[in-house]
Design a protein that fits this description.
By secondary structure, the protein is of the alpha/beta class. Helix content is about 50%, strand content about 10%.
């Protein structure tokens, strides 16, 4: 196990009725003016908007709003909010939503104190030096943006989707009331669940041979999600399953599973998926159920052991060589995605074979990446072809 520092400053208020507990934190921070950030109807449908605005009204906190945040959030909304903040007093940000809304809030938080264009931070031309505090209310679990310092934003003009990361961007507080997620469309539960599984697999399959204890945590998480997702498809209002789903999302990508690992994980599938989201606005989780099995088939022969161990510990595959167990595990993972009606081919995302060239060029903008195998442009092209 390698040396590591794990720091997570976010206070998580978890469970039914947790929005009310936000009062103490807002009072302690002497918050008087917030920017309320959300997507659209879902914030109202689940009841989160009403609970938050009732609390803000009770505390005499003003709350101008920024809405219409899209999945695969755009830089234009971030710029719009920053321009507003720089001409009016805002003490904090309150995102109500899932990863897209939280990521938008973090980008706004970082850009509020930056004199140049906020996209400079995403191009790594400048570091994040100061940020507005975030008091978030989660309504969709998947990305773990509620418990990490990462913001992923799309820039359509540059055809680029990328991220910034900073200790300053961890939410001060994240409210996670699983009841808010009971009204989610089935596809959103499925795609979010795939994202949660992917975050664990990206650690389990990074090739690190000396993280057995952390691997065990990852296997348990994947096994749990393979039980929870079908449970929620059958009964979307299963509160206990919603709780497990929401907390699994936090554990999967809070940095915990990376502790002691030689690398932080292999995020090749995420990088390749970002190009699908960027160019075709594909749902993030859907890109992962398509790309991850294809990536695994392409790289497993470089080091079949982590795939074989996945087979043993998640799918009860014990017979055969490491290579045989590895390919059987990849097939079992893909079969699970099919069983929950997640897409597993580019064709299901309405991607044409002729689009692969543009996809490859777009994904290659993120090079270099890959831990188990360092990919180049030819590798990217081959993985997309396997996914087709």
């Amino acid at each position: 196990m390698n040396n590591f520092t794990w720091h997570n400053p976010t206070a998580v208020l978890f469970g039914k009725g947790s929005v009310a507990k936000l009062e103490d934190y807002l009072r302690a921070a002497n918050v008087k003016n917030v920017l309320l950030i959300y997507g659209g109807k879902s914030a109202f449908k689940c009841g989160a908007y009403t609970q938050v605005t009732d609390l803000l009204t009770k505390l005499n906190i003003t709350f101008p709003e920024l809405n219409d945040i899209k999945a695969n959030p755009r830089i234009d909304k971030v710029r719009e909010a920053i321009a507003r903040i720089k001409v009016s007093k805002i003490d904090a940000l309150i995102p109500i939503g899932g990863g897209s809304v939280f990521d938008t809030a973090k980008a706004i938080s970082a850009g509020a104190f930056y004199d140049g264009d906020v996209w400079d931070l995403f191009e790594k031309k400048a570091p994040v030096k100061k940020a507005l505090p975030i008091f978030g209310v989660l309504t969709v679990s998947a990305t773990a943006s509620e418990v990490n310092g990462i913001s992923v934003i799309t820039n359509p003009e540059k055809e680029f989707k990328t991220s910034i990361e900073s200790q300053l961007l961890y939410p001060a507080v994240s409210v996670i009331d699983p009841e808010f997620q009971m009204t989610l469309p089935e596809k959103q539960t499925i795609h979010g669940g795939v994202d949660i599984i992917a975050h664990a697999l990206e650690r389990l399959l990074d090739g690190d041979p000396n993280s057995e204890f952390m691997d065990e945590q990852g296997y348990a998480l994947v096994r749990s999600m393979m039980r929870i997702i079908p449970d929620l498809i059958e009964n979307p209002k299963n509160y206990d399953a919603r709780c497990e789903y929401a907390w699994a999302a936090c554990v999967a990508h809070s940095g915990f599973l990376a502790c002691g690992r030689e690398t932080r994980g292999d995020f090749s599938s995420h990088k390749l998926g970002h190009s699908l989201s960027m160019l075709f606005d594909a749902a993030h989780g859907a890109t992962l159920s398509v790309i991850m099995p294809a990536w695994a088939r392409y790289v497993y022969q470089d080091n079949p052991i982590p795939f074989a161990r996945l087979g043993e510990n998640v799918f009860d595959i014990y017979d055969g060589t490491d290579e045989e167990k590895a390919i059987e595990a990849i097939e079992a993972l893909e079969d699970f995605f099919k069983d929950i009606n997640a897409p597993t081919t580019l064709r299901e995302l309405n991607i044409k074979e002729d689009d692969i060239e543009n996809l490859t060029k777009n994904a290659a903008k993120n090079l270099p990446f890959g831990a188990l195998r360092r990919l180049d442009e030819k590798d990217i092209d081959e993985i997309y072809k396997l996914a087709y």
